[in-house]
């Protein structure tokens, strides 16, 4: 039952000057061992998960040191810590890498964290030259020819030469070794590199989660004892991080709370896999799904447009967002036939937005970083320099804008083609590109201004504006 008179609830609502809605309340007080919170854009997911921690500590009397909050970046962690500071809570809020590092330290693992990978690669090459010369020579010769006869002749010639001058190796050959190390295509070379790192107790940041996962699989592993693990932005989890958390869950049978939105999973290039969020309850059980469908950022009319696009994806959890905010015609379209008109349209939009006398945040968005170069055009640049001091203008790619909200959003260069949105030539995941477009649309509190080429508009524009 939803009771607004409860002390803890009234205290939170008074402190943050908001009303906790029915869906947020349900997520806060839920007692299942595993909870998946499916939170729409602008639904207050971070605030809700922080309120859940407050409820656990002050109402259910869970010791604060038994709760761990995980996020992906130090910036995201700092935003969560701000809420906890206001709630007078001392909770460990860390990244996956830091959690992995803590597991390694807890088990007294001896290692040196190396951040200068280039220097480690150079030391490894030196090791091959001096301690594994036969393999080193064979590797170098393999880059020079694939013919066995030529390899034997080259090997004979270079061995005579290297007897006189052991260090006389063309730089491009060693660069090939470095390239193979980076691409991780040579299994034997990779094994030798990992063995070298292990012997010298070297660990990279990218190794931490895997090393901690391997450790958790050992029988004598001493694991950190948490009762609750909260994971923000779970839709962005990679296989390695998922396996790490799942292994910890199987060992400890702790409570797991995963918060995210599969509609906003846009980091496949960083190995995220949205399937782990979509099928969360297939792995973590007993559990329940709770939807945060009430958005406080977008208008209902904009949500209708956004849903028209995202509903074309198949691999997702269907949801229906709603808002009490209404705004007629939240999508504004501006077409252009050449760069001159393109510049003119951008200036026209900015002129309109700059007329306000109230504080306003404007976001200029692009699919690619180079699309923002148009904002350096002389007349646009001078207009931005004269921007009223009460107006904030930011320029970001869509990936960098995820999680942010602005009063108005301009979305640049919605074209088709090799560097279109989506690209018609590069290897892309169309459903992820569509999610990226959805993220762009839902950054606004008011209007989205679309800049569209007349001749080759993006298919997403067609999906958005179709009847």
Instruction: Give the strand order, joined by hyphens, for the main sheet.
Output: 3-2-6-7-1-8
* Average of the residue pLDDT scores: 88
Count of individual beta strands: 13
- How big a fraction of the residues is strand? 15-25%
Structural class: alpha/beta
Computed CA radius of gyration, to the nearest angstrom: 27 Å
Q: Count the helices. How many?
A: 20
Our measurement of the CA-to-CA distance between the termini, rounded to an integer number of angstroms, reads: 41 Å
Largest sheet: 6 strands, parallel
Low-confidence parts: 1-5
| Helicity, as a percent range | 40-55%
Cα shape = globular
Report a brief summary of the structure.
The protein has about 475 residues and is α/β, with parallel strands linked by helices.
Please give a structural write-up:
The chain is built from 20 helices and 13 strands. The relative contact order is 0.11. The protein has a six-stranded parallel sheet with strand order 3-2-6-7-1-8. It has a five-stranded parallel sheet with strand order 9-13-12-10-11. Residues 1-5 have low confidence and may be disordered. The protein is α/β, with parallel strands linked by helices and 467 residues long. It has helices at 7-16, 22-29, 45-58, 74-86, 96-106, 117-131, 133-144, 148-164, 171-183, 187-199, 208-216, 239-252, 275-278, 280-283, 300-310, 339-353, 378-385, 398-401, 430-441, 459-465, and strands at residues 34-39, 67-71, 92-95, 112-113, 202-203, 228-231, 255-260, 287-292, 331-336, 360-366, 391-397, 406-411, 444-453. The radius of gyration is 27 Å and the shape is globular. Strand 6 (228-231), helix 12 (239-252) and strand 7 form a beta-alpha-beta unit. It is 46% helix and 15% strand. Helix 6 (117-131) crosses helix 7 (133-144), helix 11 runs parallel beside helix 12 and helix 15 (300-310) packs antiparallel against helix 19 (430-441). It starts with 6 loop residues before the first helix and ends with a helix.
């Amino acid at each position: 039952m939803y009771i607004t008179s409860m002390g803890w609830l009234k205290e939170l609502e008074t402190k943050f000057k908001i009303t906790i809605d029915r869906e947020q309340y349900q997520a806060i007080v839920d007692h299942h061992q595993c909870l998946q919170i499916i939170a729409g854009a602008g639904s207050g997911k971070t605030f809700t998960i922080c309120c859940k921690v407050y409820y656990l500590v002050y109402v259910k009397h869970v010791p604060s040191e038994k709760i761990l909050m995980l996020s992906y970046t130090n910036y995201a962690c700092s935003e969560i810590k701000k809420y906890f500071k206001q709630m007078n809570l001392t909770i460990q809020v860390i990244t996956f890498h830091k959690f992995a590092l803590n597991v390694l330290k807890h088990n007294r693992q001896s290692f040196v964290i190396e951040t200068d990978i280039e220097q480690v690669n150079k030391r490894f090459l030196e090791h091959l030259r001096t301690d594994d010369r036969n393999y080193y020579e064979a590797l170098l010769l393999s880059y020079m020819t694939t013919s066995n006869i030529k390899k034997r002749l080259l090997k004979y010639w270079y061995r005579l030469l290297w007897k006189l001058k052991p260090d006389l190796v063309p730089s491009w050959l060693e660069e090939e070794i470095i390239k193979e190390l980076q691409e991780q295509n040579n299994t034997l070379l990779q094994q030798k590199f990992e063995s070298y790192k292990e012997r010298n107790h070297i660990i990279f940041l990218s190794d931490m989660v895997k090393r901690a996962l391997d450790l958790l699989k050992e029988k004598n592993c001493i694991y950190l004892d948490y009762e609750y693990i909260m994971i923000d932005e779970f839709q962005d989890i990679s296989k390695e991080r998922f396996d790490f958390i799942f292994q910890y869950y199987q060992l400890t049978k702790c409570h797991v709370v995963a918060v995210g939105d599969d509609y906003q999973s846009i980091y496949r290039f960083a190995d995220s896999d949205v399937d782990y969020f979509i099928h969360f309850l297939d792995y973590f059980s007993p559990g329940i799904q709770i939807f945060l469908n009430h958005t406080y950022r977008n208008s209902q009319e904009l949500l209708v447009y956004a849903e028209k696009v995202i509903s074309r994806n198949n691999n997702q959890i269907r949801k229906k967002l709603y808002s009490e905010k209404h705004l007629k015609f939240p999508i504004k379209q501006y077409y252009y036939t050449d760069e001159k008109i393109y510049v003119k349209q951008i200036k026209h939009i900015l002129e309109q937005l700059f007329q306000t006398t109230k504080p306003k945040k404007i976001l200029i968005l692009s699919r690619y970083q180079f699309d923002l170069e148009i904002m350096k055009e002389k007349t646009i640049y001078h207009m931005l320099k004269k921007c009223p001091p009460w107006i904030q203008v930011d320029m970001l790619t869509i990936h960098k804008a995820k999680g942010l909200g602005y009063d108005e959003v301009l979305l640049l260069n919605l074209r088709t083609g090799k560097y279109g949105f989506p690209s018609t030539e590069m290897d892309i995941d169309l459903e992820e590109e569509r999610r990226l477009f959805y993220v762009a649309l839902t950054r606004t509190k008011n209007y989205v201004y679309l800049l569209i080429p007349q001749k080759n508009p993006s298919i997403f524009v067609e999906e958005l504006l179709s009847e």
